[in-house]
Amino acid sequence: MREVLDDLVAAIAAGHTVGLGTVVRTFRSAPRPAGAAMMVDADGSAVGSVSGGCVEGALYELATKVVQSGKPVLQRYGISDDAAFEVGLTCGGILDIFVEPVSTGIFPELPQVADDVGAGRPVAVVTVIEHPDPAWLGRHLVVRPEGFVGSLGSERANHAVCDDVQGLLAAGRNATLMYGPDGQRRGEGMRVFALSFAPQPRMLVFGAIDFAAAVAKQGSFLGYRVTVCDARAVFATAARFPQADEVVVEWPHRYLQAQIAAGQMDERTVICVLTHDPKFDVPLLELALRHEVAYVGAMGSRRTHHDRLERLREAGLTDAELARLSSPIGLDLGSRTPEETAVSIAAEIIALHWGGGGQRLSTMEKRIHHEPTADSDHEDAGYELKSS
Fold first, then answer.
1. Where in this chain does the record put each XdhC- CoxI domain (predicted)?
2. pLDDT digits over 354-386, tens only?
């Protein structure tokens, strides 16, 4: 929902009631992940996407009807038959989409949620998407690390769901959760969708060289909060790195140590070491490879790589720690320019996150969309789906 949040808040601030469709569960080769959203404004305009174009037309009509009726709907879109490509997912995936009316009266906490997201404060929105009592459908709970506001329908449900969602929020995960009708830990009847707005993941780029500018641009494009760090003040300037969120003049290992001590690193952080100078990259990599992050890559030739490994072994790093190092950095794309090299680095980060192998899709027979290497909200359907 992040991609439509500003438009959504602006529309309800203008007094509109908006139809909002959110992907709450995916199966097989669904094109968009849980949390993807599309809104239909009162003036007929649409913002966002839930399927890359497969079901947007049908969702547009449904969202319009939901606004008129005021009643939320949980709709499944699945594989279309030969005569119904305009409704189904030709990619073979399955989407559960919750469609709800949104206004300041229905969801008064939404503007504050948008403020939190804009300021980088962690916040999650919980929505009841299934319940035996229709009055519960579409109710929201806003969860933050310190507690919650709003109500799903009972205090028991509020506290049970808040406890679970705070854990999801800490990990930056979305999930569909099942409870009993009053929030019981056992049983079924109530399903909620928890959408986490965690702070942006970080990309730390060390080495203020021309390749760093291209990598910073790619990182920003992929949604990372990008920091460029170098000890040389003459090179580490904001003017040279306009795509970076911040440029820091400091010895790389000192900056990384300070960020670790301040709790500013997590398992989503990616680190790109472009210094290829032992006095910079060896103490930096010694720290990075001993900390739980998503990716550590280092630039350099094969000769530089082997020399670096020997220095890191002398510093006491184990084979398991060294195995986490992507060096030479990037995938084999035949890249030459800084921009092409940045694409190869970004491609490696994406492939490692989602479990891709980097091969040409035209040479492969297996499914296009991989399961992520971390916990996923993407599932395989274990049953046959009727056409929508």
1. 12-78, 119-180
2. 888 888 878 877 666 555 444 444 333 332 232
**What is the per-residue pLDDT for 298?**
95
* E strands in 210-311: 225-230, 246-249, 270-273, 295-298
List the structure tokens of 130. Answer: 């299934």
Residues 59/97, Cβ–Cβ less than 8 Å: yes
- Spatial CB neighbours of 315, under 8 Å, sequence gap ≥ 6: 282, 283, 286
Nearest in space to 296 (alpha carbons), one of 314, 312, 307: 312
By DSSP bridging, strand 378-379 and strand 18-27 are parallel
> Is the CB of residue 164 less than 8 Å from the CB of residue 191?
no
- Provide the CB-side half-sphere exposure for 335 (13 A, CA): 20
Q: Do the strands 190-197 and 123-130 form a parallel or antiparallel pair, or are they unpaired?
A: antiparallel
| 37 pLDDT higher than 80 | yes
Residues 200-220: tens digit of each pLDDT: 889 999 999 999 999 999 999
Which amino acid, 215? V
Distance CA 274, CA 309 (A): 16
Mean pLDDT over each residue of the chain, to the nearest integer = 87
Measured distance CA(123)–CA(145) in Å, rounded: 8
Dihedral angle sign, alpha carbons of residues 160, 166, 168, 173: positive
State phi, psi for 104 to the nearest 5 degrees. Answer: -65, -30
Q: What is the DSSP letter of 104?
A: T
Element of type H or E holding 205: strand 202-206
